[in-house]
Amino acid sequence: MTVSVIISTYNQPRALELAIWGYSTQTLSDFELIIADDGSDSGTRDQIERLRYETGLTIVHVWQEDVGFRKCRILNSALNRATGSYVVISDGDCIPRPDFLATHIRLAAPGRFLSGGRICVTREVFDSLTQRDVVKGSIFDVTWLRVRKALPRFRDILKLSSNEFADALDRFTPTRATWNGHNSSGWRADFLAINGFDERMGYGGEDREFGERLRNYGVRPRQVRHRAVCVHLDHDRDYIREEVRSKNEHIRRDTRGVPKALSRFDSWMKGPTWTEFGIRKSPRPEDQVRDKTEPIK
Q1: Helix (H), strand (E), coil (C) string for the chain
Q2: What does the domain layout of the chain look like in residue ranges?
Q3: Would the pTM of this model clear 0.70, i.e. be above it?
Q4: What is the arithmetic mean of pLDDT over 192-219?
Q5: Which tens digit of pLDDT belongs to each residue from 103-154?
Q6: Which among 162, 170, 262, 268 has most CB atoms closer than 10 A?
Q7: What is the largest CA-CA distance in the chain?
C-alpha cells in the first residue's frame, strides 16, 4: 500500500510548520506529504522549501490563487497529484500523534473510510507551543496539557488513553462516524469514483458532504476517533458566512436523499454519488456513454 497525506492550509505558517514537524515524528515513514494551499503568500512557499530540507520529508506543494475560500478545489487538485493508493486528509492546523499514520494504515479496509478524532487546545497553548514540544510528543502528554489547563473536557483525556482502552471506546461511543476534514482517510480510487469534493461548497459542512457521497457509493465509515488522534490549534475564522452555510446545507440535503413515505420499514432513498462540480467538470463517464448511444428521436 502506498500512502499520500493531504493537509490543507491558508496563510497559517506557524501552525503549518508545527503540523509538518508532527509528520516528521511518525512511526510510519514511507509516505508523501501534499500541502493543499488555498492561496497563501510566498512566505508559506519559502517555509515549505526550508522544511523539506530540515525534516527530510517528501513534500509536494499544490497552490492556487487566492480568490476566496476554495478548500474543496485545492483538495481536488491535491487528489489529482497524489500517487498513493491510500489517502489520509487533515488540516494544516492539526498536529498528528506519532502513531497517527500507522493507525490509519493498520485500520484501513476495502469498502471503508476512517473517521478520526481531534483534541482542541486554546489559542494560549498554541502561542506557547514550540517545535521541541511537538517533536518530543509533549503536546500529547496528559500531564503537560493539564499543567497548561488545556484539557477542559474529560473526553479529550480519553483520546489519549491506551490503545486497548481506545478500541473499546470507538466500539461503544454514541458519536456517529462521519468524514471529518481534520482527520479522515480512505482509498483514492473511491474518492475518484465520486469525483472528489464538491467545489460549489464554501466553509461549513463541505467535508461532511464528501463523506455522505462516499456512503451513497457504498463506502461505510469506521469510527477511529479514540485511536487516530491529532491536536487542533485554535485560530480565527473570518471566512464564516451564514449565507454560504445555508447554500451548503441545501446541497447536503440533496446528497443525503429523502426518506420513502410508503412504510416505516422502508430504507432511505440514496442521494447522488457523483458531483458534476468536482475533479471532472462533467457528468459521470457512464452517463456520457449512455447519452451517446441513445437513439435520436
Answers
A1: CCEEEEEEECCCHHHHHHHHHHHHCCCCCCCEEEEEECCCCHHHHHHHHHHHHHHCCCEEEEECCCCCCCHHHHHHHHHHHCCCCEEEEEECCEEECCCHHHHHHHHCCCCEEEECEEEEECHHHHHHCCHHHHHCCHHHCHHHHHHCCCCCCHHHHHCCCCHHHHHHHHHHCCCCCCCCCCEEEEEHHHHHHCCCCCCCCCCCCHHHHHHHHHHHHCCEEEECCCCCEEEEECCCCCCCCHHHHHHHHHHHHHHHCCECCCCCCCCECCCCCCCCCCCCCCCCHHHHHHHHHCCCC
A2: 3-254
A3: yes
A4: 93
A5: 999 999 999 999 999 888 888 888 889 999 999 999 888 888 877 766 656 5
A6: 170
A7: 75
Give the CATH class of 3-254. Answer: alpha beta
Cell of 69: 475560500
Report the C-alpha gap between 195 and 139 in whole angstroms: 36
- AA letter at 207: D
Amino acid at 110: P
Place of cell 491536536: 231
